[in-house]
Amino acid sequence: MRKPFIIANWKMNKDVHESMRFVEAIKNKLPVDQEIGIAPQAVSLYNMKLTAGNSNLQIIAQNASAQADGPYTGEISLRTLVDAGATYVMLGHLERRRLFNESNLVINEKVLAALDAGITPIICTDEEMVQTEINGEIHYVFQQLKTVLNGVSPDQLKDIVISYEPSWAVGSKHTANPDIAEAGCRQIRQSLADSYNYDVADQVRILYGGSVNPQNIQEIMAKPNVDGALIGRASLDVNNFLQMINYQQQAQLQAAQAI
Ligand code: PEP
Question: Average pLDDT in the 121-132 region?
Answer without folding.
Answer: 84
